[in-house]
Structure prediction request, 610 residues.
Amino acid sequence: MCGIFGVVSNTSINKQKFQTLVKHSEQRGVDSSGLIYYQNNQYKVNRADYSIEKLLNKVKPYNNNIVLGHSRLITNGLGDNQPVIRGNICAIHNGIIVNEDEVWSKLSVSRQLKIDSEAIVAIAEEFLTNSENKIEDLPKEVLSLCQGVIACALALPEKGKLLLFSNNGSLYVGYNEDKTYFASESYGLKIIGCENITQIKEESLILDIPVSKENLTVIDEKSRVEDLIPEFKFNTIEENLLEYKKLDIKRCTKCILPETMPFIKFDEAGVCNYCKSYKPRNNPKPKEELFKLVEPYRRKGKELDCIVPFSGGRDSCYGLHLIVKELEMKPVTYTYDWGMVTDLGRRNISRMCADLGVENIIVAADISLKRKNIRMNLEAWLKSPHLGMMAMLTAGDKHFFRHVEDIKKQTGINLNLWGVNPLEVTHFKTGFLDIEPDFEEKRVYSHGAMKQLRYHSKRFRAMMESPGYFNSSLWDTLSGEYYRSFTEKQDYYHIFDYWRWDEEQVDNTLLNDYNWEKAIDTTTTWRIGDGTAAFYNYVYYTVAGFTEHDTFRSNQIREGQITRERALELVGIENTPRYQNIRWYLDTLGLDFERVIKIVNKIPKLYTEK
Prediction:
């Protein structure tokens, strides 16, 4: 996934406007970059494993009349970079092809690279060998074979053509003076003064560029030491370090919460206070109310009318399905990638947006920096393990809430519709900080100044036990939590306040209608796109004997969705350690699997083994 951009002109490009366009494209990722430009009657390519701004400062392609490029969020390794080249065909692609193996099985040419985007160039290579094929039909050929988001600029120097095409609308074209600009988002074109900005979605755009029979010259620069997506290698010895015992501990006789749950109390019948205080959450209001609420936001024609915060998890995916198919809105999705979104999550984002024809705006953090922050906090935690401090490992994703406001300003769209599961309430995470549960809280995320001040004071005391928490990540943590819990939210609604959340229906829709991808190391569809969940749930189960799955299934019992017996059966499977995901998590942080797991295993248990 990346931000792609470019300018085609009969004269030299405007340096200032091009730099502005590039700067906005960096919002989508800065892990690697690439440029294509026409110089001295030849097309040249520069690729680097660092930011596009740094590459621009080095190449300085401003005296040329054609410059195309990308600023990339790494999704499948650093070994290959864009622009992708085969022969004299060159492409920059925003998106993920989710059926690349199937595509290659249909082609006669052989695969040369690991990057999924090579399939687009290979299709073009094979297509153009047939002299009867028309260039204007090439985009349709690509889109008919490839599944997932395809927003592409495909350069054919020998034909003197540049093809711009997209299947989800994450590509725009605009005009300024005598120049044609394109970018992944309309906002980048607006801020440089483009006019007649249009979305490329149903019809491709073909631009004339200078013909060149010369071979492309390519310069690759690699300076990064770390691998943002380390290769997974299965290690049986490591996997055997993960402990998992079926525990015989006291549980509520109505739900399945155990005696180790913070602040839990049982009555004479063995029913817990969580059950007795529970108020149904999955009891939606009439759908007609939401139709009335969104009516003022609807826009005529093809103009987009709502923003959908989109993690790629099952609930936001199903929520997007409802918004498009049932509510009949025209959304743009927004994803915040903070370095712990797994490739599985990204592929499901690509599936849903492609199938529904929905634009996806990505805001990518500095992944190296974010992972450094997590690593520092995890190292501090390992020196003084405290269950109440596990939330420090996910603090970096809270900027998700801040960037929603940025996207509203950039798109001019106020309405945002959220697909938050009403049953994902985990009182125990703050309970382990000695904060009593607020059974009246209606949202997954708590709000209010007093609640937050109490939370931060409790957490500060825990941080004092391991001074390593007082590191350079602290501002990132605090500012993210501020935007989540203190800023006033406007023009937003929760889709599951009006549609009943039903797990069976959700899973059936995603798996059957959208070929949604499941994880290979768990049976559940929940949390599989989150790189942190497997690790923190392993810690919770090892030390406290339960995980998020126990609280979630308990809420389903209270809502009458499943029986207690079925819940116990499910958590017995779902609490099994996810070796692949845990290994990925620790590898991305640069931490030794054996060292970390052995520390976790030695933490004193909150239960007595029988």
User: Anything to note?
Assistant: Residues 262 and 431 are 5 Å apart (CA to CA). The two ends are 50 Å apart (CA to CA). The chain is about 35% helix and 15% strand.
